[in-house]
Amino acid sequence: MRKILFLFAGTLVSGSLLAGGLVTNTNQSALYTRLQSRNASTSVDAVYYNPAGLGKLGSGFYASVSNQTIGQTRSILNNYSYLTGTPKEYIGTVSAPLFPSVYAAFKTGKLAFSLGVNPIGGGGGAAYEDGLPSFEMPISELVPLTFANGFGTTAYSTDIYFKGSSTYFGFQANVTYAINNMISVAAGIRMVTAKNTYSGYMRDISINPNYPAFGTKYNGSMNLASDFFTDGSTTMTALATGATAYVAGLQPIITGGGGSVLLSNGTIVGLTSAQITQIQTIMGAAGQTTAQIGGATIAYAQAVLGAAAPVFTATSATLGGYAAATQDVEVEAEQTGFGYSPVVSVNISPIDMLNIAIKYEFKTKLELTTSLIDNKGGGVFTEGQKTIADMPALLAAGIEFKPIDKLMLTASMEYFFDKDVDYDGSETVNLNMIDKNLMFVSLGGEFKVNDQLRVSAGWGGSFTGVNADYQNDQRFSANTTSFGGGFGYRLMDMLDLNIGGQYTVNKEASKSLTRLTPITETYNKNTWIVAIGLDLYFGL
């Protein structure tokens, strides 16, 4: 039962919120939202997508400020037979009203210097009003487990809530050098600051045992499970104490030759009527039938009590463990850390109408340290606990092609080196959750209606490489399909407005697992986004 607490240590809030890899966001500008493909950008968002592409800018100062408002719905369907209302669907809502990206670049001669700030991972908060299957399944098992032990339980209830949030901000600085009109190169460094927060509880775990031996209130009505198990543990301890005492107390009678006397006639060898009743009660609790108790000799009664005493003691300990595991649990914790990642890129323009870019981001090593709020670790988190949360290396490439002045076509690819990352959060255990590295590909097009207005649309798709060991109700990955569109409008010579929208659907994923019975768990999610941004330019 104690395992029900470990769900709080999941990673459902630390993955990527929209486009990109398992833990990396690549939706980093309003231009991206409406085009879906920016890896060969030579605009100011190239600070993130293609730092070497800044070498194509004219001399001057460039800046971009954009925000994306993102909503996501996650669905987990679980058909475990002991869940109330099985198959049961658990809905999680993720909200990120603020998902900002800020870029600045200064180009002079052949050099460009740039800075960028964006949510490189996470970026939202996930709330599960009814918890998750991994919360509820162990609680639901109280019914068959206690029923099988003769406690007559047929129902359970509980109050569960979980919310987590994650913010991984990237702070990136680049230097770009234009070797000539055809080739530019860039090198940069990104610092990632990470913060995950966890807040939740499991309260009022209740069952309906029909077992008045532990108290008259346990007559089939709903009661706190911790109360029932506590009372049961107390009762079993008392039975063990009584059995042990009577084993010793009956020995002088047996030594004196009274072992063959019927227990029911024990008053003739010195037992009181109350003592006889107590011994018979303990024998009944040990499983003896009325006939066996009625025909029991004092020697037989002693043997039964001697065998029952350690069983009562063990049962008391078991029930005490259940009592501890069904107490209310509350968690308020946060994890923080930071890491660094070098970034290198090259941009090639063999002809005026064609631009090609390649970028490599090195692996970001992240170690998160846990801090408890009001010492609420819930038996899972401990103050100062370390968790590995590395972000994988990334190889990105892109092409922009302008067959005519009014039309721009673009394609992008990202390849995440997930197999080099232990996504279980531990340096010492590698569960081999990744069969192949994730790839994301996208296509986009923009048409220039006139000097002010440009319209665009795009498509993107990810191809995941996780296996069943990665999938659970706290994190899951499947192939995705995204569609985006929008427009850009030139407000004035040095100011552009970009507005875009996007919708992403996941291919349904599932996993088979077994607890007391086989289970199929099905995962799904969909995401929408609305973005707005302003790009500014001040020429020298």
Task: Characterize this entry briefly.
The protein is an alpha+beta fold. 19% of the residues lie in helices and 44% in strands.
Can you write the helix and strand succession as a string?
A: HHEEEEHHEEEHHHHEEEEEEEEEEEE
Helix content: 10-25%
Task: Give unreliable regions as ranges.
Answer: 1-14
CATH superfamily of the largest domain: Outer membrane protein transport protein (OMPP1/FadL/TodX)
Mean pLDDT: 92
- How many domain regions? 2
What is the strand tally? 19
CATH architecture of the largest domain: Beta Barrel
Structural class: alpha+beta
Radius of gyration based on Cα positions: 33 Å
Q: Approximately how much beta-strand content do the residues carry?
A: 35-45%
Largest sheet: 19 strands, antiparallel
Question: What is the rounded distance between the termini?
Answer: 68 Å
Protein described:
The protein has helices at 30-35, 46-49, 133-140, 142-148, 225-258, 273-285, 290-294, 298-325; strands at residues 60-78, 88-96, 100-108, 111-128, 156-178, 183-207, 223-224, 329-351, 354-361, 367-372, 386-388, 394-404, 407-416, 439-448, 453-463, 480-492, 495-506, 509-514, 518-539. With 540 residues, it is of the alpha+beta class. The protein folds into two domains: 2-208 and 325-539, Outer membrane protein transport protein (OMPP1/FadL/TodX) (Porin); 212-324, no CATH class. It has a 19-stranded antiparallel β-sheet that branches. Helix 5 (225-258) packs across helix 6 (273-285), helix 5 (225-258) packs antiparallel against helix 8 and helix 6 (273-285) crosses helix 8. The protein is elongated.
